[in-house]
Write a structure and sequence with these properties.
The chain is an alpha/beta fold. It is built from 14 helices and ten strands. About 50% of the residues lie in helices and about 15% in strands. The strands form two sheets. Strands 8-7-2-1-9-10 form a six-stranded mixed β-sheet, sandwiched between helices. The protein has a four-stranded antiparallel β-sheet with strand order 4-5-3-6. Helix 13 links the parallel strand 9 and strand 10. Helix 2 runs antiparallel to helix 5, helix 8 packs across helix 9 and helix 10 packs antiparallel against helix 11. The two termini are about 15 Å apart.
Length: about 325
């Protein structure tokens, strides 16, 4: 029997215009988005629909925007009675996965990731840290590169282990630039700067993690009704206590997305549905296993296509 995983994207997937058609087409979506605006105390939807892009990209705007997109599209998809066996998210997307698993409410999620973004920005103000994708170099060799640069005083480390041949590094602007140049010398095919405003999943985020513990202590985190494959361990989790601990660790630990996909594949998952802005994770899943069936739900048209395809048994 086929098993399904819902996967949820993280920062970098945001784009001006996201959810605009869904807001217009669905009363439920409109209600959820309006409730999110009210909970935050500003019009997040205006930023999502109209931009400007540089404001939407700021971590404390991008995070609630991406969670909102995933939660709204998830709600539309669940009306079709499509249920997952596993959920997982990439970095910030882990919060969307927890909403899907009933561990965190949508409104708590939106408020929490907005605060998370503010703490991350405070730890390393926008422009001081960054991330880049390194293509075509294995993790062991790239680890040597980042260690060499860090030893010379510019912090940089592996942040997202996404799929074969694609690893994201994170650190100070100088650290990432120097590591990128050295990685090319050591055989990397390309180094691509990412559309993010901070050095996420690096040791530079530890001050934010300390403060973030108090934020999580003030929201209700329940046991998950669906196993959530954790970024930090690449293993399923359902217990509220573990979820809370992993969310703190996740701020400064690498995202083990490649291993998470492998873990779900080994447990019999053959269909992955990416829910939220963009199609980045669909591409990563395919690079991990070309035989996996992937769908991306990012607007009303893609939602309808996915539902039809699943009903047709594709």
């Amino acid at each position: 029997m086929s098993k399904i995983a819902f996967v949820f994207p993280g920062q970098g997937s945001q784009a001006v215009g996201m959810l605009k058609d869904v807001y217009a087409a669905s009363e439920d979506a409109k209600k959820m988005i309006d409730e999110g605006n009210e909970a935050l105390g500003f019009s997040l939807s205006n930023l999502m629909f109209e931009g400007p892009a540089e404001d939407l990209t700021l971590t404390y705007h991008a995070q609630p925007a991406l969670l909102t997109a995933s939660a709204v599209l998830l709600n539309e998809l669940t009306k079709e009675e499509i249920k997952p066996d596993y959920v997982a998210g990439h970095s910030l997307g882990e919060y969307s996965a927890l909403v899907a698993a009933g561990s965190i409410s949508y409104i708590d999620g939106v408020k929490t990731v907005h605060t998370r973004g503010q703490l991350m920005n405070k730890a390393v103000p926008a422009g001081e840290g960054t991330m880049a994708a390194v293509l075509g170099l294995d993790a062991e060799e790239l680890e040597k590169v980042t260690a060499e640069i860090s030893e010379n005083g510019d912090v940089v480390q592996l942040a997202n282990i996404n799929c074969p041949g694609q690893i994201v590094i994170s650190g100070t602007v100088a650290g990432v630039e120097k590591a990128g140049a050295l990685a090319k010398e050591r055989g990397a095919k390309r180094v691509l700067p990412l559309n993010v405003s901070g050095p996420f999943h690096s040791a530079l985020m530890k001050p934010a993690a300390e403060e973030f513990k108090n934020v999580l202590a003030n929201i209700t985190i329940s046991n998950a009704s669906i196993p959530v494959v954790a970024n930090v361990t690449a293993e399923p989790m359902t217990e509220a206590k573990e979820i809370s601990e992993r969310l703190v660790e996740q701020l400064y630990s690498p995202v083990r997305f490649h291993e998470s996909v492998e873990r779900m594949l080994n447990d019999g998952v053959d269909t992955f549905i990416e829910i939220g802005a963009g199609k980045v994770l669909s591409g990563l899943v395919k690079k991990v296993n070309r035989r996996a069936t992937v769908h991306a739900v990012y607007d009303m048209e893609s939602l309808q296509k996915t539902v039809q395809s699943l009903k047709d048994g594709e």
